[in-house]
């Protein structure tokens, strides 16, 4: 039984160390990138993966009980909420950013959206 405890401890420690390593890589990405959306992308991806690994490591170390189920539910909640909140913040930044031309380029901003070609008149209705 002691061997199983050590294997569980080492696997949990490896997952925790992987999560901490991902946090350090995320931190370097946040400081490296200049534009706010690039920084936000690095932070959101790192948080989601790093927290997932850390909490999974804690659940493995804890064993199979109610606490590990709660940790798993926290992982699921964070995996749904973190990308959604990051997306909403990024949309807000794009909407209110006054320096869009500097970051996106004039060609990207002048591009027209694709029209709906499913209707007979090409998606354009006259009133």
Care to describe what's here?
The structure is a single chain. The chain is an all-alpha fold. It has one domain (2-110). Helix content is 78%, strand content 0%. It is built from 5 helices and no strands. It has helices spanning 2-32, 36-62, 66-96, 100-104, 106-110. The N and C termini lie far apart (78 Å). The model has no long low-confidence stretch (mean pLDDT 82).
Q: Estimate the mean pLDDT confidence.
A: 82
- Helix amount: over 70%
Q: Write down the overall geometry.
A: elongated
SS-based class: mainly alpha
- Count of folded domains: 1
Largest sheet: none
Q: Report the sheet-strand fraction.
A: under 5%
Strands, total number: 0
Query: What Rg, in angstroms, do the CA atoms define?
Result: 22 Å
Q: Give the SSE string.
A: HHHHH
Which segments are poorly predicted (pLDDT under 50) over 5 or more consecutive residues? none
Treating each run of at least 4 consecutive H or I residues as one helix, how many helices?
5
How far is the first residue's CA from the last residue's CA?
78 Å
Which labels suit this protein?
single chain; 127 residues; mainly alpha; 5 helices; elongated
Brief summary:
The protein has 127 residues and is mostly helical. 78% of the residues lie in helices and 0% in strands.
List the SSEs and their pairings.
Elements: H1 2-32, H2 36-62, H3 66-96, H4 100-104, H5 106-110
Helix pairs in contact: 1-2, 2-3
